[in-house]
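Hi Prof. W.,

I finally got the Lipoprotein prediction working! I wasn't sure whether to trim anything, so I left the full sequence exactly as given:
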Amino acid sequence: MKTRNLFKSIVVLLALSLIGCNKEEQEEQNNSNTTGQFTTEEFNANAKMDDISNDISEIAEDQLNAQNTARAESYQSILPNCATVTTTVEGNTWTRIIDFGTTGCTYHNGAILKGQIIISGSTDFHQSPYVWTYSFHSFYYDNILVQGTKTLSRTVQATDALATPHPVVGIDLDLDITLPNGNTYSRTGTRTRELIEGYDTPLIFHDNVYRITGNWATTGTNHSYTSTITTPLRVEIACLYKLVSGVITINRNEHTAVLNYGNGHCDNNATISIDGGTPHTFTFRN
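And this is what came out:
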């Protein structure tokens, strides 16, 4: 694991050396309280926010399915055994508090979760669109403090990606993280998460495959950048690393980084290309 982390850092640093501004640009940007080049921390924070957003959206959908009384008895939840769930129903609203404890609970992909996720929605599961939300209480993902609230809206419809009606979830992103060193990052934007495989086996979550599109803005202390999914991401729950293909394009100032997650193989290999340069391989979810 340490070797892979070191390799990842070397590759990212190589990429960063290609995206740096010249001295005059750097001085101008420093004077305006911004930085002109991506840092290793920024790339790592961006990747972690992707992981957090994907995994928590996954947990929120899993708990919606578990709460649906039509499925609850036979439903196979994706939560690890170390998580405890407390459910309350008041009027027409249900709330599930998922408690991962304070010492660390390992998610199925290896992420260490601590604290609580609070998920709530209507008891009328036939509403269309069906809207539910989640928030956090002292929640940590790999020792990163996570805060914010997300709203999810689900419909069943046909799309250009799949003619058969299937669940389509729109996600309103509002996410803040604090790294162990105290630096903070915020993300706002939208994602669309389509369940393109596994929708015909509603009692099983592990066979689900998703197609994800969207765009968002990420802001740090003195900098910001935008990200757009330019080729839809394919996420396979049965794959340890989940993200098996797709392209994200990141823009900052006049520079562009293109992250390519491959052609469908279940691995954690990806490439990064800076300003149209030669793609360099790195590993993700380390």
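The first strand starts at residue 84 and ends at 90. Does that look reasonable to you?

Thanks,
D.
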